Amino acid sequence: MAYDLTHLRQLEAESIHIFREVAAEFENPCLLFSGGKDSIVMLRLAEKAFWPAKLPFPVMHVDTGHNFPEVLEFRDRRVEELGARLVVASVQDAIDSGKVVEETGPRASRNRLQTTALLDGIAEHRFDALFGGARRDEEKARAKERVYSFRDEFGSWDPKNQRPELWSLYNGRIKQGEHIRVFPISNYTELDIWQYIKEEGIEIPNVYFSHQREVFERDGMLLSTSPFITLMDEEEPFMETVRYRTVGDMSCTGAVESSADTIDKIIDEVAATRITERGATRADDRVSEAAMEDRKKEGYF
Amino acid sequence: MEMLRFATAGSVDDGKSTLIGRLLYDTKTIFEDQMEAVERASVQMGTEYTNLALLTDGLRAEREQGITIDVAYRYFATPRRKFIIADTPGHTQYTRNMVTGASTADLAIVLLDARKGVLEQSKRHAFLASLLRIPHLVLAVNKMDLVDYDQTRFEEVKDEFRDFASKLDITDLTFIPVSALHGDNVVDRSPHMGWYEGPSLLHHLEEVHIASDRNHIDTRFPVQYVIRPQSDEYHDYRGYAGTLAGGVLRPGDDVVVLPSGFQSTVKSIETLTGPLEEAFAPMAVTVRLDDEIDISRGDMIVRPNNQPDVSQDVDAMICWMNEKSSLTPSSKLVIKHTTRTTKAIVKDLSYMLDINTLHRDESATELKLNEIGRVQLRTQQPLFFDEYRRNRETGSFIMIDEATNVTVGAGMILGESN
Question: What structural domains and CATH numbers belong to chain A?
Answer without folding.
Answer: 7-192 (3.40.50.620), 205-286 (no CATH)
